[in-house]
Amino acid sequence: MNFKSLALFLTAAAVPQAVVAGPLAYGICQTGCNGLAVACYAGAGFTFGVALPLAPPALIACNVALGGCMATCAVVALAPTL
Hints:
The chain is mainly alpha-helical. It has three helices and no strands.
C-alpha cells in the first residue's frame, strides 16, 4: 500500500459513518412493547388480542401506551446514528 492509499484509507476511517440498528433491533423492541401490552391487559383483567365491542378506559390507556412504545422503537431502532 502506497502512502496516498494509506492516507485515503485513514481519512475515510476517521470520518464517522452513520449506522442503523436495523430490522432485528426494531423487532426486538416491538416484542418488548407487546410483552408490556399483554401485562397491561392482564393487569386490567383482559386478554390481549381479544376484540371487544366497546373498550374500557383501562384498555384504551394500554393501547395508547403500546402505540407510544412502538413509535419510540421506530425512532430509536431505525434512526441512523453516528
